[in-house]
Amino acid sequence: MRQRAVRNLARLGTAHARITRILDAAAGGKNNFLADRDLVRHFDQVTPVATTAARAVLEYLSRVVRHLAAVEGVDQFMIVGSGVPNGSSGGSRLHEVARVASPGSDVRVVYVESDPMALTLAQATIEPFCDLVRVVDGDVREIDEMLGDPVVQTFLDWDRPMAVLLLSAHSLDDECARTAIKRLRHAAPEGSFLGLLHITFDGVPPELAPAIRSLLAMTLPGLTVRTRDEVADLLDGLDLMEPGLVWVPEWRPEDGDPACADAPSSSGNYGAVAHIP
Protein backbone atom coordinates (compact mmCIF):
# COMPACT_ATOMS: atom_id res chain seq x y z
CA MET A 1 0.00 0.00 0.00
CA ARG A 2 2.75 2.44 0.92
CA GLN A 3 4.59 1.81 -2.34
CA ARG A 4 1.44 2.51 -4.34
CA ALA A 5 0.82 5.69 -2.33
CA VAL A 6 4.31 6.89 -3.25
CA ARG A 7 3.65 6.05 -6.92
CA ASN A 8 0.33 7.88 -6.80
CA LEU A 9 1.93 11.00 -5.38
CA ALA A 10 4.57 10.85 -8.09
CA ARG A 11 1.80 10.74 -10.69
CA LEU A 12 0.02 13.78 -9.26
CA GLY A 13 0.74 15.97 -12.26
CA THR A 14 -1.62 18.87 -12.76
CA ALA A 15 -0.59 19.16 -16.40
CA HIS A 16 -2.20 15.85 -17.38
CA ALA A 17 -5.91 15.07 -17.49
CA ARG A 18 -7.49 12.05 -15.80
CA ILE A 19 -10.78 10.52 -16.89
CA THR A 20 -12.45 10.83 -13.47
CA ARG A 21 -11.46 14.49 -13.18
CA ILE A 22 -12.67 15.13 -16.75
CA LEU A 23 -16.07 13.76 -15.75
CA ASP A 24 -16.12 16.05 -12.73
CA ALA A 25 -15.03 19.08 -14.78
CA ALA A 26 -17.63 18.46 -17.48
CA ALA A 27 -20.35 18.21 -14.86
CA GLY A 28 -19.35 21.46 -13.18
CA GLY A 29 -17.52 19.99 -10.20
CA LYS A 30 -14.46 21.32 -8.39
CA ASN A 31 -12.28 18.22 -8.12
CA ASN A 32 -10.30 18.85 -11.30
CA PHE A 33 -7.38 20.77 -12.79
CA LEU A 34 -6.98 23.16 -15.70
CA ALA A 35 -5.82 20.29 -17.91
CA ASP A 36 -9.11 18.49 -17.30
CA ARG A 37 -11.18 21.57 -18.09
CA ASP A 38 -9.11 22.24 -21.21
CA LEU A 39 -9.79 18.74 -22.48
CA VAL A 40 -13.53 19.22 -21.93
CA ARG A 41 -13.31 22.38 -24.05
CA HIS A 42 -11.43 20.48 -26.76
CA PHE A 43 -14.12 17.81 -26.82
CA ASP A 44 -16.83 20.44 -27.05
CA GLN A 45 -15.05 21.98 -30.02
CA VAL A 46 -15.19 18.62 -31.81
CA THR A 47 -18.73 17.77 -30.71
CA PRO A 48 -20.59 19.84 -28.10
CA VAL A 49 -21.84 16.97 -25.93
CA ALA A 50 -19.21 16.56 -23.20
CA THR A 51 -21.14 18.42 -20.51
CA THR A 52 -24.42 16.68 -21.29
CA ALA A 53 -22.73 13.28 -21.47
CA ALA A 54 -21.12 13.83 -18.07
CA ARG A 55 -24.52 14.70 -16.60
CA ALA A 56 -25.95 11.52 -18.11
CA VAL A 57 -23.23 9.42 -16.47
CA LEU A 58 -23.70 11.02 -13.05
CA GLU A 59 -27.47 10.69 -13.28
CA TYR A 60 -27.07 7.01 -14.14
CA LEU A 61 -24.83 6.42 -11.14
CA SER A 62 -27.29 8.20 -8.88
CA ARG A 63 -30.19 6.12 -10.22
CA VAL A 64 -28.26 2.90 -9.70
CA VAL A 65 -27.40 3.76 -6.10
CA ARG A 66 -30.89 5.06 -5.41
CA HIS A 67 -32.56 1.92 -6.80
CA LEU A 68 -30.25 -0.48 -5.00
CA ALA A 69 -30.67 1.34 -1.69
CA ALA A 70 -34.40 2.09 -1.85
CA VAL A 71 -35.76 -0.91 -3.75
CA GLU A 72 -33.25 -3.73 -3.26
CA GLY A 73 -32.45 -2.82 0.34
CA VAL A 74 -28.69 -2.57 -0.13
CA ASP A 75 -27.06 -0.77 2.80
CA GLN A 76 -23.37 -1.14 1.92
CA PHE A 77 -21.56 -0.10 -1.24
CA MET A 78 -18.04 -0.40 -2.58
CA ILE A 79 -17.52 2.13 -5.38
CA VAL A 80 -14.37 1.58 -7.41
CA GLY A 81 -12.91 4.38 -9.51
CA SER A 82 -15.62 7.05 -9.42
CA GLY A 83 -13.25 9.91 -8.66
CA VAL A 84 -15.91 10.93 -6.09
CA PRO A 85 -17.23 13.70 -8.37
CA ASN A 86 -19.34 16.47 -6.87
CA GLY A 87 -20.95 17.70 -10.06
CA SER A 88 -24.10 15.59 -9.96
CA SER A 89 -27.55 17.02 -9.47
CA GLY A 90 -27.64 19.20 -6.39
CA GLY A 91 -23.96 18.53 -5.78
CA SER A 92 -24.83 15.16 -4.17
CA ARG A 93 -22.17 12.52 -3.95
CA LEU A 94 -23.10 8.87 -4.20
CA HIS A 95 -22.96 8.20 -0.46
CA GLU A 96 -25.39 11.09 0.02
CA VAL A 97 -27.70 9.66 -2.64
CA ALA A 98 -27.68 6.31 -0.84
CA ARG A 99 -28.36 7.90 2.53
CA VAL A 100 -31.35 9.88 1.23
CA ALA A 101 -32.73 6.82 -0.59
CA SER A 102 -32.57 4.71 2.58
CA PRO A 103 -33.05 7.16 5.48
CA GLY A 104 -33.88 4.49 8.03
CA SER A 105 -30.64 2.56 7.67
CA ASP A 106 -26.97 3.23 8.31
CA VAL A 107 -25.70 2.96 4.74
CA ARG A 108 -21.97 2.33 4.58
CA VAL A 109 -19.92 3.34 1.54
CA VAL A 110 -16.30 2.61 0.69
CA TYR A 111 -14.79 4.55 -2.20
CA VAL A 112 -11.71 2.92 -3.73
CA GLU A 113 -9.52 5.41 -5.59
CA SER A 114 -6.15 5.41 -7.33
CA ASP A 115 -6.26 9.05 -8.48
CA PRO A 116 -4.14 10.86 -5.85
CA MET A 117 -6.13 14.10 -6.11
CA ALA A 118 -9.50 12.38 -5.72
CA LEU A 119 -8.12 10.31 -2.87
CA THR A 120 -6.65 13.25 -0.97
CA LEU A 121 -9.66 15.53 -1.41
CA ALA A 122 -12.17 12.85 -0.49
CA GLN A 123 -10.25 11.82 2.61
CA ALA A 124 -10.07 15.46 3.69
CA THR A 125 -13.63 16.52 2.88
CA ILE A 126 -15.73 13.38 3.42
CA GLU A 127 -14.25 11.08 6.05
CA PRO A 128 -13.99 13.72 8.83
CA PHE A 129 -17.70 14.54 8.46
CA CYS A 130 -19.26 11.12 7.86
CA ASP A 131 -18.60 8.10 10.07
CA LEU A 132 -20.25 5.82 7.53
CA VAL A 133 -17.91 6.58 4.61
CA ARG A 134 -14.33 5.52 4.02
CA VAL A 135 -11.97 6.40 1.15
CA VAL A 136 -9.33 3.79 0.39
CA ASP A 137 -6.18 3.98 -1.70
CA GLY A 138 -6.61 1.07 -4.08
CA ASP A 139 -6.21 0.10 -7.72
CA VAL A 140 -8.47 -2.40 -9.46
CA ARG A 141 -5.44 -3.51 -11.47
CA GLU A 142 -4.18 -4.90 -8.16
CA ILE A 143 -7.47 -6.56 -7.35
CA ASP A 144 -6.29 -8.99 -4.65
CA GLU A 145 -4.49 -6.24 -2.76
CA MET A 146 -7.54 -3.99 -3.14
CA LEU A 147 -9.93 -6.60 -1.76
CA GLY A 148 -7.52 -7.43 1.04
CA ASP A 149 -7.25 -3.84 2.28
CA PRO A 150 -7.97 -3.79 6.04
CA VAL A 151 -10.57 -1.03 5.71
CA VAL A 152 -12.35 -2.81 2.87
CA GLN A 153 -12.37 -6.03 4.88
CA THR A 154 -13.52 -4.59 8.21
CA PHE A 155 -15.66 -1.56 7.38
CA LEU A 156 -17.95 -3.64 5.15
CA ASP A 157 -19.74 -6.78 6.34
CA TRP A 158 -18.72 -9.54 3.92
CA ASP A 159 -21.37 -11.88 5.32
CA ARG A 160 -24.21 -9.69 3.99
CA PRO A 161 -25.19 -8.51 0.47
CA MET A 162 -23.54 -5.39 -0.90
CA ALA A 163 -23.27 -3.47 -4.15
CA VAL A 164 -19.95 -3.24 -5.93
CA LEU A 165 -19.81 -0.56 -8.64
CA LEU A 166 -16.88 -0.90 -11.05
CA LEU A 167 -16.55 2.47 -12.76
CA SER A 168 -12.98 2.23 -14.02
CA ALA A 169 -13.02 -0.76 -16.37
CA HIS A 170 -11.87 1.66 -19.07
CA SER A 171 -8.45 1.64 -17.37
CA LEU A 172 -8.03 -2.12 -17.81
CA ASP A 173 -7.00 -4.28 -20.73
CA ASP A 174 -9.22 -7.26 -21.56
CA GLU A 175 -7.39 -9.77 -19.37
CA CYS A 176 -7.30 -7.46 -16.35
CA ALA A 177 -10.94 -6.48 -16.80
CA ARG A 178 -12.11 -10.09 -16.93
CA THR A 179 -9.98 -10.96 -13.91
CA ALA A 180 -11.29 -8.00 -11.90
CA ILE A 181 -14.94 -8.76 -12.66
CA LYS A 182 -14.45 -12.46 -11.90
CA ARG A 183 -12.77 -11.69 -8.57
CA LEU A 184 -15.41 -9.13 -7.60
CA ARG A 185 -18.34 -11.41 -8.43
CA HIS A 186 -16.82 -14.28 -6.44
CA ALA A 187 -15.74 -12.13 -3.50
CA ALA A 188 -19.11 -10.43 -3.07
CA PRO A 189 -21.53 -12.21 -0.70
CA GLU A 190 -24.57 -14.06 -1.99
CA GLY A 191 -27.36 -11.69 -2.98
CA SER A 192 -25.01 -8.84 -3.89
CA PHE A 193 -25.01 -6.64 -7.00
CA LEU A 194 -22.28 -5.73 -9.47
CA GLY A 195 -22.63 -2.51 -11.46
CA LEU A 196 -20.57 -1.48 -14.47
CA LEU A 197 -19.99 1.77 -16.36
CA HIS A 198 -18.02 1.77 -19.61
CA ILE A 199 -17.08 4.36 -22.22
CA THR A 200 -17.65 3.57 -25.91
CA PHE A 201 -17.35 5.11 -29.37
CA ASP A 202 -20.42 3.24 -30.66
CA GLY A 203 -22.46 6.43 -30.79
CA VAL A 204 -19.79 8.68 -32.30
CA PRO A 205 -20.63 9.84 -35.85
CA PRO A 206 -18.14 8.29 -38.31
CA GLU A 207 -16.98 11.71 -39.50
CA LEU A 208 -15.99 12.69 -35.93
CA ALA A 209 -14.42 9.41 -34.84
CA PRO A 210 -10.88 10.08 -36.18
CA ALA A 211 -10.63 13.45 -34.43
CA ILE A 212 -11.90 12.08 -31.12
CA ARG A 213 -9.62 9.04 -31.28
CA SER A 214 -6.62 11.25 -31.96
CA LEU A 215 -7.51 13.57 -29.10
CA LEU A 216 -7.87 10.65 -26.68
CA ALA A 217 -4.65 9.01 -27.87
CA MET A 218 -2.74 12.21 -27.09
CA THR A 219 -4.38 13.06 -23.79
CA LEU A 220 -5.58 9.74 -22.29
CA PRO A 221 -3.31 7.05 -23.72
CA GLY A 222 -4.32 4.44 -21.13
CA LEU A 223 -8.02 4.61 -21.95
CA THR A 224 -9.62 1.41 -23.29
CA VAL A 225 -12.70 2.10 -25.38
CA ARG A 226 -14.95 -0.90 -26.06
CA THR A 227 -17.91 -1.69 -28.29
CA ARG A 228 -21.18 -2.96 -26.85
CA ASP A 229 -20.28 -6.53 -27.81
CA GLU A 230 -16.92 -6.19 -26.05
CA VAL A 231 -18.56 -4.82 -22.89
CA ALA A 232 -21.15 -7.58 -23.02
CA ASP A 233 -18.33 -10.12 -23.24
CA LEU A 234 -16.94 -8.80 -19.95
CA LEU A 235 -20.35 -9.43 -18.38
CA ASP A 236 -20.80 -12.90 -19.84
CA GLY A 237 -22.39 -15.28 -17.36
CA LEU A 238 -23.80 -12.57 -15.12
CA ASP A 239 -27.53 -12.21 -14.44
CA LEU A 240 -28.23 -8.65 -15.61
CA MET A 241 -31.13 -6.74 -14.10
CA GLU A 242 -33.61 -5.18 -16.51
CA PRO A 243 -33.07 -3.43 -18.86
CA GLY A 244 -29.69 -5.14 -19.29
CA LEU A 245 -26.67 -3.51 -20.90
CA VAL A 246 -27.89 -0.19 -22.29
CA TRP A 247 -26.90 3.40 -22.89
CA VAL A 248 -26.78 5.02 -19.45
CA PRO A 249 -29.83 7.31 -19.99
CA GLU A 250 -31.86 4.16 -20.73
CA TRP A 251 -31.12 2.43 -17.42
CA ARG A 252 -34.34 2.79 -15.43
CA PRO A 253 -34.99 6.46 -16.30
CA GLU A 254 -36.95 8.51 -13.82
CA ASP A 255 -39.29 11.45 -14.17
CA GLY A 256 -37.76 14.77 -15.11
CA ASP A 257 -35.44 15.80 -17.90
CA PRO A 258 -32.57 13.31 -17.95
CA ALA A 259 -29.48 14.26 -19.91
CA CYS A 260 -29.19 12.69 -23.39
CA ALA A 261 -32.74 11.31 -23.15
CA ASP A 262 -33.49 12.25 -26.76
CA ALA A 263 -30.20 10.80 -28.02
CA PRO A 264 -29.00 8.16 -25.55
CA SER A 265 -25.96 7.23 -27.64
CA SER A 266 -24.57 10.75 -27.16
CA SER A 267 -23.91 9.81 -23.52
CA GLY A 268 -20.95 7.80 -24.80
CA ASN A 269 -21.32 5.20 -22.03
CA TYR A 270 -22.98 1.87 -21.44
CA GLY A 271 -24.25 0.77 -18.06
CA ALA A 272 -25.47 -2.44 -16.49
CA VAL A 273 -26.20 -3.91 -13.07
CA ALA A 274 -26.00 -7.64 -12.37
CA HIS A 275 -27.50 -9.60 -9.50
CA ILE A 276 -25.11 -12.09 -7.90
CA PRO A 277 -27.13 -15.15 -6.79
From TrEMBL:
GO molecular function per UniProt: methyltransferase activity
Phylogenetic classification of the source organism: Bacteria, Bacillati, Actinomycetota, Actinomycetes, Streptosporangiales
Highest taxon listed in the record's lineage: Bacteria
InterPro entries for the chain: SAM-dependent_MTases_sf (IPR029063), SAM_dep_MeTrfase_SAV2177_type (IPR006764)
Swiss-Prot/TrEMBL GO biological process terms: methylation
Region (Disordered): 258-277
Enzyme class: transferase
Pfam families named in the record: Methyltransf_19
Protein name as it appears in the record: SAM-dependent methyltransferase
Keywords linked to the UniProt accession: Methyltransferase, Transferase
EC number of this enzyme: 2.1.1.-
